[in-house]
Predict the 3D structure of the following.
Amino acid sequence: MGITVQNITGSTAMVIWPKMASCVDSFYSVMYHPNWNSMLSSYSRKSFQKEERVPTTRSSFVVENLAPLTTYIVCVTCQSANPSSDQCRVFNTLERDPASASNTKKELALGIWLTSSILLLIIAAILLYGCLHLLCRRRRERLQGRNGTSEQDQGKVWTKSVTCTSEELGQQSQLMQDTEEKHPGSIQLATIIENPSACKEPVMPTSESQERVPTTGQCSAI
């Protein structure tokens, strides 16, 4: 059949075959398998690990994802038919090429960087949430403390005002007592002036005011 394998690398190989007149309006089957042993393996479709279908308009196919330093067999048939020995070729892949190795390292480094970045973002988000929660809690405690202090201050002011009022009442009472002790008749005179009817009844003055206040019926003179 004239199948050839070209551009072999550590992971890819290009398979080329001539066009078949019997495969018009159909497809080609490209089958390949690693570690081929012609003594133990048969040329049946079940013996092949991979199978690719290629349109009849094409006469080549690039086999990918091969293992480096491995012996492969590749067969090309028409319409998934079982291949024969003249429709197959054996080839060996090369070592892993530096470009693919560097690409693999770059992909690994990129994956590690993305994973670490995501973890750092998660940790930063957790720390930010904790800080905001702590700040809100402290602010709430401060507001509660201010409210409690204002209530205490109001209570102190009210207590102070009550105390002041009591002291003023006590002072007024003491002043009235002092005035009564110094001028005992003045209160009675004021009472008589305000209530003239009280003059009809005799007023018994104290010993100190007997000379000043009459005992009976002298309201007009007073």
Q: What stands out?
A: Residues 4-93 form a domain with the Immunoglobulin-like fold (CATH 2.60.40.10).
